[in-house]
Amino acid sequence: MTATEIRPAHSRRRFLTGIGAAGIGAAVTGCSALSPGSGDDSRGLDVWTLTDPVQNKIQRAALTRLRRSHSSRAKLTPFPNTGYTQKLRIAMGTSDGPDVFWSWGGESLRPYHEAGLVVDLADRFGSDTRWRDAFLPAALQAACVDDREPLGLPVRGMQPVILFCNQTLFDEHDLRPPRTWDELLDVVDAFVDADVIPVSLAGAESWCELMWLECITGRLTGTGPLRKIFAGERGSWRHPAIEEALDRIQKLVRRGAFGQAFGSVSYGSGGATAIFAKGRAAMHLMGSWEYSNLRNDHRRFTEDGLSWVSFPTVPGGTGDPRALVGNNTNYLSVNTRSADIDAGVGLVGTQLAARPFIDALIKAGDVPAAVGIEGRLRELAPDPDFALYVYRVVSDAPDFTLSWDQAMLPAVKEAMLSSLQQIFLEKLSPRQFVDAMELIQ
Q1: Alpha helices of 166-306 — where are they, by DSSP H?
Q2: What is d(CA 204, CA 352) in angstroms, rounded to the nearest whole number?
Q3: What is the radius of gyration, based on Cα positions, of the chain?
Q4: Is residue 156 pLDDT above 90, yes or no?
Q5: 10, burial (CB in 10 Å: exposed 0-12, middle 13-18, buried 19+)
Q6: Does residue 323 carry a pLDDT above 80?
Q7: pLDDT tens-digit readout, 106-140
Q8: End-to-end C-alpha distance for the chain, whole angstroms
Q9: How many Cβ atoms are within 10 Å of 50's Cβ, its own excluded?
């Protein structure tokens, strides 16, 4: 691995925040997906995005290139994560909303799609599929609503959940990173006996605990039952895999997998990362953004003592072991009320796949969702080994499920995260968790 400097790390919460509110309202329904609305074309193309100095520079460069083929003036309007979803929802209910807007795909696009406010890219491009074929299918999946063509295209890199391993500790104890559930249990027992915390877990922040439920459930049953949960179907939480996954989690807790004080460990302050990197814990289940945090704060360990594997397979599970969960990426979509839909489509459909844009993302430390970029990752990425690993596992993934708390309505998400903490603390049984979620659902 190289010792090349990379930009400051961003947490998962900065990369991906909550899904938007339900419904846009009757006043915004019935818009054509192909006709400009009543927006004011004097303002030029207004592109809404999230505030990020590095990413915004890359995005402004794309707008500059767009002006070579479109006469419209174009501007980037960045917003902080906090409150963005509500600002977008309100603005999309008027004729002054953004021409192009940033989203998290999936359910965050649904209300705009159902209100007729998202341009159908497949209709716009017709038989020309280059706009779609330029990106990995697993990354496009989250920009689809009801199995349609994607309604937006990737504007950032991909961040799947990965099992990071302290290879130094594994070597010292003559162990190897686990590939199966039984191997995971053996490794947990071995490290407990050696007075090493098997898994660093920031239990003070329940979204960190959620990754265990996401990964185990995915290995047990795949994505079919999850779609029913995300859609809010009654009875969907009662799928046997949910209760079994919760039971497996509690057995790991009793086995000592997370140590005795995980409930007081935070992620935002770097606590879980430090426990792992300083040799007090052997494993850490976290999104791939954790690599940047490790490299920024624990450079020597990252270069000499870090390894990573996909989440172990679970016996009897029917989920594809290549399937992933995490932050697929973020997307740009075009508003049907834009006064210059052609320019918006030109930005989304051509510039996001253009070589200058993709190369800039790679240099900034992202792993773009573009097809056939292995050579460019090897040449341009600050950390080629890790970038290529992320790219290959996403390329091979038959499914890439969006993090559950980002795929659910806010009330369901909050209830799930609160109840999940009680599962890890063994204050709720798996059946009680399921019953509580069914009441909310």
Answers
A1: 167-172, 181-193, 206-221, 224-230, 240-255, 271-277, 290-297, 299-304
A2: 37
A3: 22
A4: yes
A5: middle
A6: yes
A7: 778 888 999 999 999 999 999 999 999 999 998 89
A8: 46
A9: 20
Q: What is the pLDDT of residue 142?
A: 85
249-281 burial: b if 16+ Cβ within 10 Å, else e: bbebbeebbbbeebeebebeebbbbbbbbeeeb
Phi, psi (degrees; rounded to nearest 5) at 153: -125, 155
pTM, two decimal places: 0.83
Interatomic CA distance for residues 28 and 48, integer angstroms:
19
DSSP letter at 341 equals H
Q: What per-residue confidence (pLDDT) applies to 104? A: 87
Sequence letter at residue 350: T
**CA geometry: angle at 136 spanning 131 and 139, to 5°?**
100
Where exactly are the structural domains of the chain?
12-158+328-402, 159-325+409-440
What's the mean pLDDT in 251-260? 98
CATH architecture of the region 159-325+409-440: 3-Layer(aba) Sandwich (3.40)
In this structure, which amino acid lies at residue 216? I
- Summary mean pLDDT of the chain: 88
Dihedral of alpha carbons 300, 303, 306, 310, sign: positive
For helices 430-440 and 410-424, angle between their N-to-C axes, nearest 10 degrees: 170
Q: To which H or E segment does residue 326 belong?
A: strand 324-327
Which contacts (CB < 8 Å, 24+ apart) does range 414-417 have?
415/440, 416/210, 416/440, 417/206, 417/207, 417/210
Q: Is the dihedral of CA 215, 216, 217, 221 positive or negative?
A: positive
Q: How does DSSP classify residue 311?
A: P
The hierarchical CATH code for the domain 12-158+328-402 is: 3.40.190.10
The model's pLDDT over 348-404, given as tens digits with 9 standing for 90+, comes to 999 999 999 999 999 998 999 999 999 999 999 989 999 999 999 999 999 899 899
21 pLDDT higher than 50: no
**pLDDT band, residue 43 (cuts 50/70/90):** low
